[in-house]
Design a protein that fits this description.
The complex is a heterodimer of chains A (about 100) and B (about 850). With about 100 residues, chain A is mainly beta. Chain A is about 15% helix and about 50% strand. Chain A has a single domain, classed as Pdz3 Domain, CATH 2.30.42. The two termini of chain B are about 175 Å apart. The chains are: A mainly beta (about 100), B mainly alpha (about 850). Strand 2 of chain A pairs antiparallel with strand 5 of chain B. Chain B: One of its GO terms (molecular function) is actin binding.
Amino acid sequence: METVEQLVSFNHIHVQLNGGAPWGFTLKGGLEHGEPLIITKIEEGGKAAQCKKLKVGDELVNINGSALYGSRQEALILIKGSYRILKIVVRRYFYLSLPLSLSHS
Amino acid sequence: MTQIENMVQYDNGYTEEEEDYMMQEEEWDRDLLLDPAWEKQQRKTFTAWCNSHLRKAGTQIENIEEDFRNGLKLMLLLEVISGERLPKPDRGKMRFHKIANVNKALEFITSKGVKLVSIGAEETSAKEGLLLWCQRKTAPYRNVNVQNFHVSWKDGLAFCALIHRHRPDLIDYAKLNKDDALGNLNLAFEIAEKHLDIPKMLDAEDIVNTPKPDERAIMTYVSCFYHAFAGAEQVAETAANRICKVLGVNQENEKLMEEYERLASELLEWIRRTTPWLENRMSEKTMTQMQQKLEDFRDYRRLHKPPKVQEKCQLEINFNTLQTKLRISNRPAFMPSEGKMVSDIASAWQGLEQAEKGYEEWLLTEIRRLQRLDHLAEKFRQKATSHETWATGKEEILTQKDYESASLMEVRAMLRKHEAFESDLSAHQDRVEQIAAIAQELNELDYHDVASVNQRCQSICDVWDHLGTLTQKRREALERTEKLLETVEQLFLEYAKRSAPFNSWLDGAMEDLQDMFIVHTIEEVQSLMAAHEQFKATLPEADAERQAILGIQQEVQKIFHSYGIRGDLTNPYSTISPETILSKWDKVKKLVPQRDGALQEELAQQHGNERLRRQFAAQANLIGPWIQTRMEEIGRCSLEIGGTLEDQMTQLKQYEHVIVSYKPNIDKLEGDHQLIQESLIFDNKHTNYTMEHIRVGWELLLTTIARTINDIETQILTRDAKGISPEQMKEFRSSFNHFDRKKNGAMETDDFRACLISMGYDLGEVEFARIMMLVDPNACGVVTFQSFIDFMTRETADTDTAEQVVASFRILAADKPYILIDELRRELPRDQAEYCISRMPPYAGPGAMPGALDYTAFSTALYGESDL
């Protein structure tokens, strides 16, 4: 069996949604729950889906220029405070799989 | 014309002479008085005379007797002498022809009124002779016409005429009647018988009645008449003739003498008239007139003189003839009157001929002279006109003052043109001399209009001299002007050469003097001032150069003024005018002190700045460290373990108060900084602290103190909220402090990990990453004490609000694992009920009823998720 080492890395993705609530996505987690703030659902045909940039599993790190410290409460307030334009930055983790050895032992 | 008249007269005279001469010969023959010598002479003379005329007709005679026999030459002679034409001669050799020709000649003579006394026809036959005799004798009688010896005699008038002719006393012819032929005849027969001793041989009636009477009979009868009369007649004639002759001779001679005298006079008179004319040496003015004179002379020679020559010759001949005649007739010799001697005439004639010769020579000479004069005069005219034409306008050209306002190039061009003119002038010198020479010759040859020639020549020479003078003057003026303009040229070049760099220097100086400087240090100002001083040191030299340059321009102006050149004063080699130089110089002079002032100001400014810097520095150097100290104090405080959070708070509040009280210093520093900024001071070597540093430090201090206080407050809250005991807190603190290796109130990632491990957390990478995300959501790389506490307390606190909601729903659902719509509607407000109904998923667990909703999933989702 091959041994792989897994490295985790991430990208920050900047998204701007226009038009006002509802934005078409669901947030789960938050510092209150001891979990990162994750997008768990993107509603079909919604504004988030239309922008084609967001994916389920993206972690919210910045709303309208304000860096989040992880609290869902904070995020909700910021999002609900947005009127027509919502700018969010999400962090997307991905794993890099690197084969350690190419030859079978 | 008198000459011809003379000739006719002469001829007439001579013809009579011939007749006389012939008669004389008859007489001598009869008297046997012959002088052979004289005869020879006369013959010779007469022959010569005839020949002199016959020559004109192109013929000659040798012998008088022989050569005139056929009458041709006689007729010719008469034609020549008279100048008239005779009837055409009969060109025959027969006697009849000869007779006819001689008769023609005699008729001609007769027609001229010359009486021919004797008959000349020498070779007539008896009948013809007789007939001729009858005709001759009856010629005066008009009604008698003897043509023959028959019918002509029928009317008897012929006989009567014959008788009456010889013996007019015997018959009264006037009373005769032509128609009475019988009477006439009988009368004639009667008289003839009675008085003339001629028997009646004819019968009157017979003659009358016969148409053509017997020719022979009449002839015979008539011949008796002839014999009767001719003989008697001859005798009577002879006697009468002798007398007449003698008288006639006398008369003739006298006439001849008169004639001679007259002719001689006339000739002499003519000579006398003509000679002065030939001796006249008065010259005509024009050649035409002289040629006319020559023509007149030629006419004289050709037309007027020959007759006179003849006259003279004739005169001589006349004289000789006369003398001979006189001698022959025993008369005394003819002595012409005084002055009319042959010798006189000869000498007069000689004189004439001399005069002629002289005259002709003179004419030709004069004509030649006049010709030459005309030619010369014309030549003079042509040359003079041509020269005058050339000279026209030259004076105006030479007196032009065009060089006064011309440029150097133009003056040079003028000089070249002038050179060309000078050579043209010298080329004309020859011509002027020629003209003068011609004038001289005209003078020598005594030209009639020599005065005007001389006048013209004089004016030409005067003008020529004048032109020479003007030419010289112009040359001098042009050369002088050229020199001056060359000098000016040089000066202009010099000016251009020097003014350009000087102008650049001026421009540079102005620029430098107005140079905006930005300096930040006293040293910089001082170096600028030093440079300025250096510049000032160069001014005297520059001033000298300026004066020199302007001096050049003045020099040029002086030249222009003194020599009256009116040309263009502007320098073609330079665009920099003296005015420009002057104005720039003045500006430079003004700028120098200005710069001095500016530099001084700047220096003062810099000094001021330095003061400000020091002031600021002094302050900042105090404030900086003070802030640092406070920061350290605060840091230490937050790291304190001993003492309660409240103690910490108190301490911090104290610090805060101190800090706030210190603000005025900051403000003052700000004020100083403002000044510095306003003075555009950008650096300060007296301090390492910038205002920004201080500001940032101060704000940081303020922030730090506030945060730290806030931190403590939060800790207090958290402690109170989470019910963390002081011991717990201490423990947390201790751990944190321990792993806060850098002691700055925050843990680094590795520190945190170590910390977790020390607390028993065995974390894999993923787990640790997740935790990191929680405690350091902003990925700052550090964990604050607050986050640490939050994390730590969350692990132990009951905060699962989702479960609380589930428990609540369970109560409403009566402990069922699902809830029914009715129950929701019954227990919750309508909106929330509908919300739940619409959001709750159907329950799919065991014991599910239709309409059962899964509240657990809903709650989890509700609290675990937020729909946005």
